[in-house]
């Protein structure tokens, strides 16, 4: 009879131990849950979901700006011709609407970008000879009711020195006091001529 009593007591003891461990686990989980609610309610991280004029400021950029980049720029290959070819340099105000005032955007020739490009990609571009292109002005005006304007760059394919790898590079350096994009303020233009 003694043996039977001891055998019956063992499951009760195991049951009691499991119940105690479960209660402890439930207590720990409850405390952790309450703590997470308390601590997360202290955070004041409110995401910006209001994309109105007051939350985001206008930025001036080159929409097809391409340097720095992890990819090489595609060569702009023009047919040989006595008629100038045209590349448009774009300036854009990235905002929810036109600014309501005209701004003048300045493009500056930036030969340092060509050297940086060559270092990045192991190429041997040089600045294209000055008689092979023409930029009537280095400034373009984005009208008050517009978000974009273009500056025409003429390429005289008959004058391009084909013994070299030619490139032009420009940077937006001024935008009438508006913020200039840090990522899209540069453009590099590898120039090629076909059938000459």
Characterize the structure shown.
This protein is of the alpha/beta class and 196 residues long. Helix content is 26%, strand content 32%. It has two helices and eleven strands, in the order αββββαβββββββ. The chain has helices spanning 2-40, 111-121; strands spanning 59-61, 76-79, 85-94, 103-109, 125-127, 133-135, 139-142, 148-155, 165-174, 179-180, 186-194. The strands form two sheets. Strands 2, 4, 5, 7, 9 and 11 form a six-stranded mixed sheet that branches. The chain is elongated, with a radius of gyration of 33 Å. The relative contact order is 0.21.
Class derived from helix and strand content:
alpha/beta
Q: In angstroms, what is the radius of gyration? A: 33 Å
Distance, first to last CA = 113 Å
Q: pLDDT below 50 for ≥5 consecutive residues: which ranges? A: 1-8, 41-45, 47-51
Please give the oligomerization state of what you see: single chain
Number of helices: 2
SSE layout and pairing:
Layout lengths: L1 H39 L18 E3 L14 E4 L5 E10 L8 E7 L1 H11 L3 E3 L5 E3 L3 E4 L5 E8 L9 E10 L4 E2 L5 E9 L2
Parallel strand pairs: 1-10, 2-11, 5-9
Antiparallel strand pairs: 1-3, 3-8, 4-7, 4-9, 6-8, 9-11
């Amino acid at each position: 009879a003694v043996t039977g009593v001891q055998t019956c007591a063992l499951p009760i003891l195991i049951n009691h131990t499991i119940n105690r461990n479960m209660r402890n686990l439930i207590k720990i989980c409850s405390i952790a849950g309450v703590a997470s609610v308390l601590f997360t309610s202290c955070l004041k991280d409110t995401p910006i979901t209001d994309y109105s004029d007051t939350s985001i400021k206008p930025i001036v950029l080159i929409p097809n700006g391409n340097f720095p980049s992890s990819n090489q720029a595609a060569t702009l290959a023009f047919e040989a011709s006595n008629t100038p070819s045209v590349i448009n340099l774009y300036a854009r105000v990235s905002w929810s609407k036109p600014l309501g005032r005209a701004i003048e955007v300045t493009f500056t020739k930036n030969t340092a970008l060509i050297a940086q490009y060559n270092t990045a990609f192991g190429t041997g571009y040089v600045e294209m000879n000055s008689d092979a292109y023409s930029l009537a002005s280095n400034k373009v005006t984005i009208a008050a009711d517009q978000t974009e304007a273009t500056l025409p760059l003429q390429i005289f394919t008959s004058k391009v020195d084909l013994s070299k790898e030619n490139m032009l590079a420009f940077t937006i350096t001024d935008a009438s006091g508006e913020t200039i994009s840090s990522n899209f303020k540069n453009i590099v233009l590898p120039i090629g001529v076909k059938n000459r």
